[in-house]
Amino acid sequence: MYLLYLLTGIILACITPILNFEFLGAKGVAYCLIMILFGIVVLGFLILSIYKFKISKIDYISQRTIVSWEIEFESKKPSTLCYGISLLSGVVLGIYLIFSSAGLLNSILLSLALAFTVLGLWLLGKKRFNDTKSSVPSFVISHIGLIYGDRIELFNGISKGITNAKEENGELFLDLINGKKQENLRLAIPEGKKQEVTDFLTDLNEFFSGAEDGEE
Fold first, then answer.
1. Does pTM top 0.70 for this prediction?
2. Which residues share a beta bridge with 175?
3. Please, is 123 exposed, middle or buried when counting C-beta atoms within 10 Å of its C-beta (0-12, 13-18, 19+)?
4. Cα angle 73, 201, 161; round to 5
5. I need a surface site. Which of 91, 106, 185, 202 has the fewest CB within 10 A?
6. What pairs with residue 161 in β-bridges?
């Protein structure tokens, strides 16, 4: 679907200077097309960079995995933010062009072009992010972060991290801190992951013991 939106946006943007060929001339049309393509590249870089950062967090955590497995979790409802942002960007550009005496037709075409292009790029970034996220387990503990369903968090060792962990009756209990917020997670440990969890808890307890000795 993102490809359809992108193509629609690019076509609408490129049609606009062509429709104004008599006013712009051949050189003017060529210049406008170059600037349109340049603008799309810049826009794509900005939007995809947002998802590139999110993807890098997943890669960073998964490359340092200590223990992981699949869990059942309730997925977040699909966000409509991308549709709202694309619509808003198109409306704002359309209003600006109308007040800049760009003409009603040109304003409509370019505002639609921007809206479709933003939406297409946003959905492309979202697809890349979801593809990356689906390639790793839904629960991952690493030295520097945690993946828990739709949550992806990096630890800083001060205000974000694991404060306590234990295993009881085949379940893993984690105490997390995120700023002033504290949270408890409870997960059933798969049979094949029990040794990994034991090793993780041993290493974590040794780390906490070393930290306490250092404070003393």
1. yes
2. 164, 184
3. buried
4. 60
5. 202
6. 177
